[in-house]
Every structure is written in C-alpha cells, then in structure tokens.
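Report of the visiting student (M.T.), summer placement. My assignment was to run the structure pipeline on a short list of targets and document each run. The first record concerns Outer membrane protein beta-barrel domain-containing protein.
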Amino acid sequence: MNQATKLFAILLTVSALFIGTRSNAQSIQKSKLRFGIGLDGLAPVGQLSKSTNFGLGITPRLQYGINDHVAITFTSGLYHFFPKAIPAEFNGQQYTIKNDLDLIPVKLGLKAFVTSNIYIGAEAGIGFQVDNGGGDSKFMSSGGFGYANKKWDVGVRYENFKANGYSNNVIGLRVAYGFGL
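After the run finished, the structure tokens were exported:
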C-alpha cells in the first residue's frame, strides 16, 4: 500500500471513530454565517512530488450553519506550488525545466462537527490553473478533519486534482482565523 493510500485509510478510520463518539454540544449556530481566512501548507504526494517541492495557499472560506452540527462551506483562494528543477536535453543541449503550478480553487463542501470542536469535512469543485497564461481546469475533491473554536480552525486534508487523464494529490494543513458575520 502506498503512503497516500495509508494516509487516506487513517483519515477514514479517525473520522469513523469521531462519528461514533458524537457529543450533543452545540458546535455551530444554525442560520449563521462565519468567515475565515486561512494559510495552507501543501505537501505534494504521488506524481506531483516529482515536479514540485511544496505548495502554499491562502484560502478565504465562508461557512453557513444548516443546523447546530453541520455547515455548508464555500472556499476559494490561491495555491502556489514551488517547482523542482528537472534536468532535460534537447538537440544535445542540457537545460532545466521548471513547471509552475498556480491554481485558484473554487470549492463547495460540508463540515460536520462530531464533538463540540472536532469536525470532519469534504469539499469538491474546480481548480483554475492561472500560471503561464492559464491552462486547463481541474476537478478537485478533498476529505479531512480538524479542530475549530470561535476564532481558530486547524484542519488536515487529503486533496486530489484531476484533469486530462492525470491526477495530482496533496496533503494540506490549513490554519485559519475566523469570525461571525
């Protein structure tokens, strides 16, 4: 089993344990909006790790409580991946290639609190490539878990980008400051 599969299995197991131990404490307020701005650390896994070292993101998120334990989320922002120098040869000439990857994610999701501060979440949407004059759009999906209180939200996720027959994956850590609207 590769590392990404192991991590995904661990995330699912932890999520199942949290669901099984759900508390009745109020986690979010029904019909209330929250806004948070996050800083993301992105660790590439799989094919993406061959062309990029790591990524950073800034992600504003709007959250709406549909009941006291579940919220709908809308997340956007910018992901920037720092490329690796890849040696190449063309017509006997040696040079290096650096493939930039900048994405604007636009995702909708659900955030379900299994205790008063612990949540599991899932998001899906489109990532618009904006480096080098633009590029293709990518289907994005993620699952993860985290801790949130009235001001701070710290979450870990496994995220996948798919386009044109290839798939890239990252493990993301998001630290965000939020407030009610």
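The radius of gyration is 18 Å. The CA atoms of residues 160 and 169 lie 4 Å apart. I thank the supervising group for their guidance throughout the placement.
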